[in-house]
Every structure is written in structure tokens, then in C-alpha cells.
Design brief:
transmembrane transporter activity, transmembrane, MFS_dom, MFS, 2 domains, Growth Hormone, Chain: A, 471 residues, mainly alpha, 0% strand
Length: 471
């Protein structure tokens, strides 16, 4: 790779880190925000879930946006939105304004991540694709993983508004660097934007998140909202197949080498984001830790996740999907089961060890899943594949926290109403949430084993890939 591409990737990796950091920017501040604005955990969680919903919709639009606008135009539009959202969030005096500026941040983040992935998939040599995508994936996941550590300290020392200093400062830095290195040789292609598809996606994801959050406390209402969400998302998928100008082509989902990888990305990220959101709440409410200490408890797991992501990307380039992918999912499942046992016994060291294994396992699985699916696509489908993989990632980021926080909140509330002290009630809620995550992860383990075994029989670069390249 040339030096200009290396510098471009450094800037785009940095921006992906910002986008990931913003996803968990508010986690350690939720308790303070709940107290200041007199709201409950479900309402406060919209600072995370609402952000994820907007990012998901923007990612769905990126296949169109990447073709319609130059790399430089998209980069600086995203940078401006990130800076504006950070400034506004820092100055917010109410919950509604804070939520609105989080949405502005999300508009920028939704561009940053698929922008980086498109550049990697289209410009990096094939023999380095796994390693470079692994670095990109590690930036996406290190961002939200380090956010609780950094923001926990900031919240404890300077208050919740100070957390916006991080994306603001880094956003300005990378915008300045980007002025010199972000160049694009592509010619933008005019096309029609399908606004109806974007609305269907936004409505479906929003209702799905709301339904998952409500189903544990209001089963009938939650199931009704989820049913309507399924109808809207089905209408979105049907429109993409019948529309002459789809927002994102669903052709990659017809390939057996791609769609299981997207499913594994969803399962992995649901597990990962559940750890990033629910674990700090457990450390604060059940263990009585400060926000900064709760964040520090995630330092070693974050390092394990980052290291596993980089090593697994290189191993995928060398040896393929087997046994790397099922091994990563098995480690994550073991960690979740340890957390369930540790929360309900209760034994804190067991929870801490489970958190470590959960981060390690998801780090081993995420980037190989993305790379395994994307590298089998033809160049014509790259931008659509990146959008679909990004949608899978962001849908998981929406659904995971909504589901697991909803389970934890409802079980905690029920235990308190039965007379349990807050610490024990929070332990029960955390254990219930991790039990649900373990069931989903067990399904992911079966899927990972089947997919890796299937891909083992079809080495990368074989006849199937040549056929796909000709599509």
C-alpha cells in the first residue's frame, strides 16, 4: 500500500473510532442524567438507542450516498455534524435538546463507519484485506469499549456534559488532518434517492427498539409494536427488490457466503453492546462503584477485545474461518454464563472474569465475520455489501441495549417491589439480562460452527469467488 492510502486509512480509522466512541458516550452519564432530569432508565436509554436508530438509517442510505457524492464531501459533512452535535450536547440544558444533539452526532457517525469500510474494501490489496478490515473493526469497537473508561472519569470529576469534549476535540483534529489527505478519484454518479425506503427503515427500527424495551414490562404492547416493526421492515425489503432505484441492493443476501456472516455480526454486536451498556449499570448499582471505577473495570476486557480483533483478522487471511469463528463465539458464551452465575450467587470475581471472556470472544468473531462476507462480493456489490453489513451492526447496536436494558430494568423493578434492596435487585436484573444474551449467543454458536464448516470447503479465491466477481 502506498503512503497516501496509509495516511487516508489512519484518518478514516480515527473517525471510525469517534463514531464508535459516540455510541457509548452517554453510558456512564446515564445515572447522573436520570437524577438531573428526573427520568427513568428506559427514558434515559434513548440517548443510546435513539442514536443507534439514526445511525442505522444513515448506514442504509450510504450505498446511495457513496455513489452520489465524493469521498471528500461526505467526510467533511460528517465531520461538521459531529462537531455541531458535540458542541450542542455540551451546552444542553434539558433532556429533549440533549437527545436532539445526539441525533445530530448520529448523522455524522452513520457516514464515518461505512465510508471507512468502503475505502478499505475497494482500495486495499486482497492479501491485506482481512488485516485492514480487522483494524477498522477494532476502531469501531474500541471506541465504544473505551468510552466507559474515559467518560466514567470525566463524569466523576467534571459532570456529564464534559463527555462531549472527547468527540469534539478528536473531531476537530481529524477534520484538520483530513483536509490534507482525503482525496477521491471517483466520479459521483447522479441517481434518485428513495425517501420512502428510508422512512420504512426508520419506522421499523424505531418500533422494534421500542417494542423490545417494553415487551418485558408490557408484553401485549411490546409484541404489538414489534409485529408492526416486522411489517414495516418487510415492506422495506420488498421495496428494495421491486424498486428500480433501491436504497440498498439486497443481492448480497442471496449469497450463502454473505448472509450468515451478517447474522453473526448481529449476534456478536448484540452481545458486545449489551456488555458495554449493562455492565457499567451493574457495577454502579449492584457493586456500589463510582462511574470512574466502573469504567476502569472494563480496561482489561477492552484491551483483550482490541488485541483479539487484530490477531483474528490476520489469522483469517492466513487460515480462513475455521475454527476461529466458532471458537470466538464459544468463548463469548462461556463469559455470559459466568456472568449469570456470578450475578445470582453473587460472586463478583466470577462476573469480572465473565466480562473479560465476553469481550475477548466478541473481539475474535466480529472482524472475521465482516471480512468473510465482504471479501466474497463482486466490486459492483461492494458498497451495497458494506451498507448491509453496517446495517446488521447498527441494528444489533439498537436492539441489544434496548432488549437487555429493558430486561434488567423490569426485573430490577420487580425485585425492589418485592422488598429486595437495590444492590440485590440490580444483581437479579443483570443476571436475567445476561441469561437472555446467553440464549441468543448459543444460537450464534451453532450458526458460527455451520458457517465456518461451509466456508472451509470453499477456500477464498476459489471458483466460487471468481463466479461472484463476474456477477
Amino acid at each position: 500500500m502506498g503512503s497516501s492510502l496509509r495516511m487516508l486509512l489512519v484518518v478514516l480509522y480515527g473517525c471510525a473510532f469517534i463514531a464508535g466512541f459516540n455510541e457509548n458516550l452517554m453510558n456512564m452519564a446515564l445515572v447522573s442524567i436520570m437524577g438531573q432530569f428526573a427520568i427513568d432508565a428506559v427514558m434515559a436509554q434513548w440517548l443510546v438507542t435513539g442514536y443507534m436508530i439514526v445511525v442505522t438509517v444513515v448506514v442504509a442510505c450510504m450505498a446511495y450516498l457513496y455513489r452520489r457524492f465524493s469521498l471528500r464531501a461526505l467526510f467533511f459533512a460528517a465531520a461538521a455534524l459531529n462537531i455541531a452535535g458535540s458542541l450542542g450536547g455540551m451546552a444542553s440544558g434539558g433532556f429533549v435538546s440533549l437527545l436532539l444533539f445526539r441525533i445530530v452526532q448520529a448523522l455524522g457517525a452513520g457516514v464515518f463507519i461505512p465510508l471507512m469500510m468502503n475505502v478499505v474494501v475497494q482500495r486495499v490489496p486482497r492479501q491485506n484485506l482481512g488485516a485492514c478490515l480487522a483494524l477498522g473493526s477494532s476502531m469501531i469497537t474500541i471506541g465504544p469499549a473505551t468510552a466507559p473508561i474515559v467518560t466514567g472519569f470525566l463524569v466523576s470529576q467534571f459532570g456529564w456534559a464534559s463527555v462531549f469534549c472527547v468527540p469534539l476535540d478528536f473531531g476537530v483534529l481529524f477534520a484538520i488532518l483530513g483536509w490534507f489527505v482525503v482525496r477521491d478519484e471517483r466520479q459521483p454518479v447522479r441517481g434518485r434517492f428513495d425517501g420512502l425506503s428510508a422512512l420504512l427503515m426508520a419506522g421499523g427500527v424505531t418500533l422494534l427498539s421500542v417494542g423490545l424495551a417494553a415487551v418485558s414490562s408490557q408484553p401485549v404492547v411490546g409484541l404489538g409494536e414489534m409485529a408492526l416493526a416486522v411489517l414495516l421492515l418487510a415492506a422495506f425489503a420488498l421495496r428494495q427488490q421491486r424498486c428500480s432505484h433501491p436504497l440498498v441492493s439486497l443481492k448480497p443476501l442471496r449469497l450463502r457466503a454473505f448472509w450468515p456472516a451478517a447474522v453473526l455480526v448481529m449476534v456478536t454486536m448484540m452481545t458486545y453492546f449489551s456488555l458495554s451498556v449493562v455492565t457499567p449499570l451493574y457495577f454502579e448499582q449492584a457493586a456500589g462503584m463510582s462511574a470512574s471505577m466502573a469504567g476502569l473495570m472494563l480496561l482489561l476486557p477492552v484491551c483483550a477485545h482490541a488485541g483479539a480483533a487484530v490477531v483474528s483478522g490476520r489469522q483469517l487471511d492466513r487460515r480462513g474461518e475455521w475454527p476461529l469463528m466458532p471458537l470466538g463465539m464459544a468463548i463469548a458464551l462461556t463469559g455470559l454464563l459466568m456472568m449469570v452465575a456470578g450475578a445470582l450467587l453473587p460472586v463478583m470475581p466470577l462476573v469480572v472474569g465473565g466480562v473479560f471472556l465476553g469481550y475477548l470472544g466478541t473481539g475474535m468473531l466480529l472482524s472475521p465475520s465482516q471480512t468473510a462476507g465482504l471479501r466474497r462480493l463482486s466490486p459492483q456489490l461492494h458498497s451495497h455489501g458494506v451498507s448491509l453489513m453496517g446495517m446488521a451492526l447498527q441494528l444489533a447496536a439498537c436492539l441489544g441495549p434496548a432488549l437487555y436494558v429493558g430486561v434488567m430494568s423490569s426485573v430490577t423493578e420487580a425485585a425492589q417491589q418485592a422488598g429486595a434492596p437495590l444492590a440485590w435487585a440490580a444483581s437479579q436484573g443483570f443476571g436475567a439480562a445476561m441469561a437472555v444474551a446467553a440464549v441468543i449467543c448459543a444460537g450464534g454458536l451453532a450458526a458460527a460452527a455451520a458457517y465456518a464448516a461451509f466456508m472451509r470447503k470453499r477456500p477464498y479465491g476459489g471458483p466460487e469467488d471468481e463466479a461472484a466477481a463476474g456477477e
